[in-house]
């Protein structure tokens, strides 16, 4: 099926706004009121504001919550062949205008990352990845004794794609992992940059597979990023992964998926167990997937909160790379451990260490408006 990159803009797109925690919105007032009201209830946090896991402080949208409640019946006692899973595959395939065999479901994106490394890496087929970036692929490569080539991000916080491509060719990589937008730096690469990178890998390396992780794409401004799915449909050795754990607010339900050509997805599936998506996760995911209005609100809400938080930290004199995710990665000129311990004294928990920048940078996940207003006051105290 021939697909153009531009055809996917509507799946990603919603521009961010300039408001700073003002409550203004680009959406209709009725949608904003409905969604804000649904998220006034605090997410359980054990008394600590948790800004360490990149989860959504707002949780699923109202329609998704309604679907979860409606389908929580005694029917879940008959769940060995769970309802709605096949329907979810159909909904995802239809949403991207692809075939259902070009979709692979998993219990979150972790099994997909683990399966891809096991499928395409080996002691003689290294993994090429970035540093810092999401570490599941690297951890899996280490567990199977596959060599790891980690390329540190540049001074702008972006992946050094040209250096990674050079390394892929030099070492004969089995897999190259690209997280776009990147976790933890929050930076993003344009469609043109990603396409040039993929085409270079495909032309220079006959056996290397490219994994494009788009877990945070729903938070990205579509003017700077688009999905790379058309490249996955063009090239057998390219696939992308997505997650319902971020903008869709479903981290606790564990639903993720990969998109690519059938033979590539089969190799990933056969290399590692993907788990069984349960019926509540499936009905929640298919409802969330089709709730474009809520995702637009979530993107805008996160953008305003991010702008507020970044402005506060920059006002304290610290550098923050432009982020297109629900987290930021400021250079606080001190070890992440020290900042984390100081914040925890005020019941704020921020992110773990991210080598090789653990001595200077700290990842801060973005909570709700109310949480970040409290957190910023704590940051002012501990950063002085």
Q: Please, could you describe this protein's structure?
A:
The chain is built from 14 helices and 11 strands. The chain is globular and about 55 Å long. A 7-stranded mixed beta sheet has the order 2-8-7-6-5-3-4, with helices on both faces. It has a two-stranded parallel sheet with strand order 1-10. A two-stranded antiparallel sheet has the order 9-11. By secondary structure, it is of the alpha/beta class. 41% of the residues lie in helices and 12% in strands. Helix 9 links the parallel strand 6 and strand 7.
The best one-word shape is globular
Which fold name corresponds to the CATH topology of the largest domain? Aspartate Aminotransferase, domain 2
Q: Which structural class should the secondary elements be placed in?
A: alpha/beta
Q: Proportion of β residues?
A: 5-15%
- At CATH's second level, what is the architecture of the largest domain? 3-Layer(aba) Sandwich
Measure the end-to-end span: 57 Å
Major sheet size, sense and barrel closure: 7 strands, mixed
Low-confidence stretches: 1-20, 22-40
- Identify the CATH homologous superfamily of the largest domain: Type I PLP-dependent aspartate aminotransferase-like (Major domain)
Helix content: 40-55%
Q: Report Rg.
A: 20 Å
Instruction: Give the overall pLDDT as a whole number.
Output: 90
- CATH class assignment of the largest domain: Alpha Beta
Major β-sheet strand ordering: 2-8-7-6-5-3-4
Give me the number of helical elements: 14
Protein topology:
Layout: H1 9-12, H2 29-38, E1 49-51, H3 62-71, H4 85-96, E2 103-106, H5 110-120, E3 127-131, H6 136-143, E4 148-152, H7 161-171, E5 175-179, H8 191-204, E6 209-213, H9 229-234, E7 238-243, E8 256-260, H10 262-271, H11 279-290, H12 292-315, E9 327-328, H13 336-344, E10 348-350, E11 364-365, H14 369-383
Helix pairs in contact: 3-11, 4-11, 5-6, 5-10, 7-8, 12-14
């Amino acid at each position: 099926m021939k697909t153009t990159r531009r055809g996917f803009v509507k799946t990603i797109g919603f521009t961010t706004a300039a408001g700073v925690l003002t409550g203004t919105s680009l959406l209709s007032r009725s949608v904003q009121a409905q969604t804000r009201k649904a998220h006034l209830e605090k997410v359980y946090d054990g008394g600590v504001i948790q800004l360490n896991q990149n989860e959504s402080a707002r949780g699923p949208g109202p329609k998704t919550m309604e679907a979860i409640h409606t389908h929580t019946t005694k029917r879940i006692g008959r769940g060995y062949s769970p309802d709605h899973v096949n329907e979810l595959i159909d909904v995802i395939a239809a949403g991207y205008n692809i075939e259902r065999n070009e979709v692979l479901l998993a219990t979150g994106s972790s099994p997909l990352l683990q399966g891809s490394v096991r499928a395409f890496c080996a002691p003689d087929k290294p993994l090429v990845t970035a540093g810092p970036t999401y570490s599941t692929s690297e951890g899996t490569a280490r567990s199977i004794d596959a060599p790891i080539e980690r390329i540190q991000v540049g001074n702008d916080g972006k992946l050094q794609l040209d250096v990674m491509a050079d390394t892929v060719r030099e070492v004969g990589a089995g897999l190259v992992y690209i997280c776009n937008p990147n976790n933890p730096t929050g930076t993003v690469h344009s469609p043109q940059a990603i396409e040039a990178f993929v085409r270079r890998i495909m032309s220079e390396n006959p056996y290397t597979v490219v994994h494009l992780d788009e877990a945070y794409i729903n938070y990205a401004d579509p003017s700077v990023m688009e999905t790379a799915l058309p490249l996955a449909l063009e090239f057998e050795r390219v696939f992308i992964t997505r997650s319902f754990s971020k903008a869709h607010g479903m981290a606790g339900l564990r639903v993720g998926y990969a998109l690519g050509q059938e033979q590539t997805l089969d190799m990933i599936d056969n290399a590692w167990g993907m788990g069984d998506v349960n019926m509540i996760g499936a009905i929640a995911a298919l409802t969330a997937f089709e709730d474009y209005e809520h995702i637009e609100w979530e993107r805008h809400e996160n953008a305003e909160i991010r702008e507020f938080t970044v402005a506060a930290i920059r006002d304290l004199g610290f550098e923050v790379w432009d982020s297109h995710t629900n987290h930021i990665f400021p250079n606080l000129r001190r070890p992440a451990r020290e900042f984390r311990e100081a914040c925890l004294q005020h019941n704020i928990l921020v992110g773990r260490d991210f080598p090789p920048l653990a001595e200077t940078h700290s990842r801060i996940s973005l909570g709700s408006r109310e949480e970040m207003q409290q957190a910023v006051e704590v940051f002012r105290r501990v950063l002085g």
